[in-house]
Amino acid sequence: MTFIRDVNTGPKEFRELVDEVATLMAYEVTRNTTLEEVVVQTPVGQARCQTISGKKLAVVPILRAGLGMVDGILKLIPHARVGHIGLYRDPESLQPVSYYAKLPGDIEEREIIVIDPMLATGGSASAAVDFLKERGATSIKLMCLIAAPEGVNLFTNNHPDVDVYVAAIDERLNEHGYIVPGLGDAGDRLFGTK
Hints:
Blueprint: H1 2-5, H2 11-29, E1 35-42, E2 45-52, E3 56-63, H3 67-76, E4 81-82, E5 84-89, E6 96-102, E7 110-115, E8 118-119, H4 123-134, E9 139-147, H5 149-158, E10 163-169, E11 172-173, E12 179-180, H6 186-191
Helix pairs in contact: 2-3
């Protein structure tokens, strides 16, 4: 997280670090996922092993910054389906504006991990979860790298049934709705834009 925050970390390194932290966080987010025993044939015998059972998994990044975390999670759960929800924060009102959505057809049957590097005001994450619930989703978790207390409070008040996983909770939001000290605009840092 130290290098992710560092203003001198370039886009290539930033992407690699976000990917790495996402993989590590995915272990915690999936810690209580139900497993079942299966028997597999090895080159020298049979082995009793564990595999994910029950509901199928889906990863739903909030575009565009959430894309930087997808591959890190898929390293741990490669068979998860990936949906997308496009939201941006209006710079004046700081409210989320929807512009795109594409989900697996059986989203209501899946355990869903919504991902976004930043949980600032909480508006975009809340809107994404509202969208999923409107489509029948009932098993949802939220995973973010950095959060502001204001965003955590708003999100957990709106969705007390959704577990929130964050790598760090920072001090506050500034007057522009950015997390302080934060890491800047995660999408711009991932993709080298301004």
